[in-house]
Amino acid sequence: QMDLHAQKGELFTEQDRRFHVRLLEPLENHLFLHLTEAFWAVHTLTVPLLGAPKPEDMLTTARAHRAMLQAARAGDVQAYREATTQHYAPLLATLT
Fold it and tell me: Of the candidates 7, 48, 65, 79, which lies 20 to 30 Å from 15 by C-alpha distance?
């Protein structure tokens, strides 16, 4: 779904939030889940004020989510870290 929205230049904020929540659900760290939900509340309010995301950033982010999922399913920690870095690169660029 993220890829389809990104290709159309559409936001996929809700799909993105659900993705991260689903990754955290198996963990028994409720604090981390609550902090992630708080991050999303701040994220959805502030990112549009920064003029983000750009269409190319949406594609990068959508593809990074796919890579994160594939790495997680494969149990490939290094690939997951690399995909996570790609995932947050557009946001980091916006903030700096």
Answer: 79
